[in-house]
Amino acid sequence: MKVLIVGSGGREHVIAWKVAQSKKVDKIYCAPGNAGIAEFAECVDIKAMEFDKLAAFAKEKEIDLTVVGMDDPLVGGIVDVFEAQGLRVFGPRKNAAILEGSKAFSKDLMKKYHIPTAGYENFTDSEAALAYLEKAKFPIVLKADGLALGKGVLICQNLEEARAGVQEIMLDKKFGSAGNEMVIEEFMTGREVSVLSFVDGKTIKTMTSAQDHKRAMDGDQGLNTGGMGTFSPSPFYTEEVDAFCKKYVYQPTVDAMAAEGREFKGIIFFGLMLTEEGPKVLEYNARFGDPEAQVVLPRMKNDIVEVFEACVDGTLDQVDLQFADNAAVCVVLASDGYPVSYEKGFPIHGLEKFKGSDQYFVFHAGTASKDGEIVTNGGRVLGVTATGEDLKQARANAYKAVELVEFENKYYRHDIGKAIDEA
Ligand code: AMP
Ligand code: GLY
Questions:
Q1: Whose CB among 28, 192, 369, 407 lies 3.0–4.6 Å from 41's, allowing a Cys bridge?
Q2: 406 C-alpha to center of ligand 1: Å?
Q3: In this prediction, what percent of the chain has a pLDDT beyond 90?
Q4: 118 Cβ below 6 A of ligand 1
C-alpha cells in the first residue's frame, strides 16, 4: 500500500513512524512533513490546506490511503474533497469535524444528549456576553468558538478580567473569526486526562489514557503552549472512571453525532476533567493529540493501518485494540522563549543516538534540513519519548534521553509526570 500523511509536526512524525511498521505499507509520503519524518517518508512540498493539490497528488501517485493529522484541514473539509474524487481517506468529514471546529456546537451537542460537561451559555453578541458576566460567578472561563491553536481559552478571576476577555475575543478579534462566537463556561477543578479513540461512525474503541502539560514552565506556571510533555497511562484514569465514561461520554458522543446526521469517522480526542462530581468533558478534538500521540502510539500493539482501514470501512467492531502493559513519558524540547519569541536555525546534535532503539524515540516537531544538517525550526523542536516498565521508570528514562540531544537554546520542563508521585 501507499500511504499519504498530511501534516508536519511531532504528531505526524509518530504517525509516520507507526505506519512505517505496518506490514501492509511499502511507501509513505508526507505533505509537507519535516526533517524527522523524512526518515520514513518522502516529504512533498504541498501545504496541508492545499486540498486540490493534495488530492491531485494522491491521484497521480495512486495513494491507497490518506491520513490527516491536523485539525485545520479536517475542519476545513479536506476529507470531503478527497471523497468527492473517490480517494480513500481517514478522518472526519467537515460536518463531523465541527465537533472540534466549533466549541458552541460541541457544548450544544453535549447539552442535548446529556453528556456531562461544565454549565455554559453561547454568545454571538458582545453586549449580551457582558450583561451575562455582571451576574456570573468567578473564576469563569471564556472560549473563542473556533480553532485558535489551543490558545482561545481564557480563565478569568474577576469581572474586570472577563470584560477584557470579551473585548479580546469578540471585539479585537485576537483569534480572528474564531471569536465571532464565544462560549462562557463554569470553571471546574480536578485532574485532566486525555483519552484518544478510534471511531468508525458507529463503534468507538478508546486508546490508553494520557496527560498533557500545557503550561510553559515548571509547576504549571507561565503561558499556555501546544503541550510541553505527556505521560501515559494516567494513574488517575481508574477503571471506575473508564466505566463511567464508556457509559455516559464515549458511545453517547458517537451516537449523538450519528443522530445529528454527522456520522463521525476518525479520531475523537476527549479532553476530560475528573471533578468531584465525576468526569466531565472539557473539550473534543477531531484528531490525535500532540504530544499525546507521542506517548500513546509507541504503546499500541496493533498495526495502525489495519485500524485506520477498519474505521474507513465501518468494521472497527472486529478490531481488538491492544496496548502494552508499560508506560511512556514524552518531554518536549523547545526553543528558549517559546511560546512568545525565540530564535531558530541552530544545529541539533545527537539525534543519531536514538537510531535503532526500541525504548528511546525522538519525534520532530519543528526542525528543518539546512546544508546537510538538521536545525531547529520552531518553538517546539523535538519530543523525546521513552518507555519503561512503569511511569517512574519511563520518566527516569525520558529525562536521561533528553541529555542525548543538544542545541543552542534548548529549553524543557523538568517536572513532566511529577503528578504520578501523588497517585
Ligand atoms: P480546552 O482547549 O477547551 O481544552 O481548554 C484548554 C485548557 O483550559 C484545558 O486543558 C483546561 O486546563 C482549561 N479549561 C478549559 N475549560 C475549563 C473549565 N471549564 N474549567 C477549568 N479549566 C478549564
Ligand atoms: N495536546 C493537546 C492537543 O493536542 O490539543
A1: 28
A2: 33
A3: 96
A4: yes
End-of-domain residue from the set 186, 202, 235: 186
Residues in the chain: 423
* Interatomic CA distance for residues 420 and 112, integer angstroms: 36
Residue minimizing CA distance to atom 5 of ligand 2:
289
Per-residue burial over 378-412, b if 16 or more Cβ lie within 10 Å, else e, is bbbbbbbbbbbeebeebbebbbebbebbebeebbb
As given in the structure block, the three cell numbers for residue 172 are 479585537
Tell me how far the alpha carbon of residue 271 lies from the centroid of ligand 2, in angstroms: 9
Closest protein CA for atom 3 of ligand 1: 283
Residues 226 and 275 in one domain: yes
Q: Residue range 70-86: average pLDDT?
A: 98
- Structural domain boundaries, residue 55: 2-93
| The pLDDT value given to residue 10 | 97
CATH of the domain at 306: 3.30.470.20
DSSP state letter for 277: T
Average pLDDT over residues 10-14: 98
Average pLDDT, the chain: 97
Res 390: pLDDT: 97
Q: Give per-residue burial for 157-190: e unless 16+ CB within 10 Å, then b.
A: eeeebbbebbebbbeeebbeebbebbbbbeebeb
Single-letter amino acid, residue 257: M
Q: Is residue 8 part of a domain?
A: yes
Q: Is the minimum distance from the CB of 227 to ligand 2 under 6 angstroms?
A: yes
- Together in a domain, 255 and 304: yes
How many structural domains does the chain have? 4
* DSSP-based three-state secondary structure for 155: strand
End-of-domain residue from the set 292, 318, 344? 318
| Sign of the C-alpha dihedral computed for residues 183, 188, 194 and 197 taken in this order | negative
CATH number at residue 371: 3.90.600.10
pLDDT in tens, 253-269: 999 999 999 999 999 99
Whether residue 164 sits in one domain with residue 200: no
Residue 112 lies in a domain: no
- Of 351, 367, 416, 311, which Cα lies nearest the Cα of 43? 367
Name, in order, each residue with C-beta under 8 angstroms of 163's C-beta and a sequence gap of 6 or more. 130, 133
User: Is the per-residue pLDDT at 151 higher than 90?
Assistant: no
Arithmetic mean of pLDDT, 1-29:
98
Q: What is the CATH number of the domain that holds 15?
A: 3.40.50.20
Instruction: Report if residue 101 sits inside a domain.
Output: no
What is the sign, positive or negative, of the torsion defined by CA atoms of 82, 88, 92, 93? positive
For residue 242, what are the contacts with CB-CB under 8 A and spacing of at least 6? Answer: 206
Q: Is the CB of 272 under 6 A from ligand 1?
A: no
